[in-house]
Design brief:
Blueprint (H helix, E strand, L loop, with lengths): L1 H25 L4 E2 L1 H7 L5 E7 L4 H19 L2 E7 L17 E6 L2 E7 L6 H8 L1
Parallel strand pairs: 1-3, 2-3
Antiparallel strand pairs: 2-4, 4-5
Amino acid sequence: MMSSSLNVFRVGISFVIMCFFYKSIVDSVPELSPQKYFSTLQPGKASLAYFCQTDSPSTSVFLQELSEAVRPLQEYGISVAKVNCVKEETSRYCGRGQDLMKAYLFRGNILLREFPTDTLFDVNAIVAHVL
């Protein structure tokens, strides 16, 4: 009797761990170089991109919310990417200071909108602004 309860408990814990692992894989924001990001854009398909130099504590909250917004945005056909800007990259979206505090919405390779990250403060705000 005790061992069957223990087995049920183990199965339950394993299931919960698998769900967390699956969610982290599915909802993670892909990290791309600017060149790779722009080469993957498809005509007519919308994409939200956040360009950044390095992770900082001020962007970690935004990146967490962005990763949670991946699934709802994918349901509307909108892909999400984090674009890592390195010093040798010359993309105009890889600016400095306030330029790095924005997310950009593209349809194909056409820029539709730019959003200051302080307006994208949670999942609902991200989805609402993008839609």
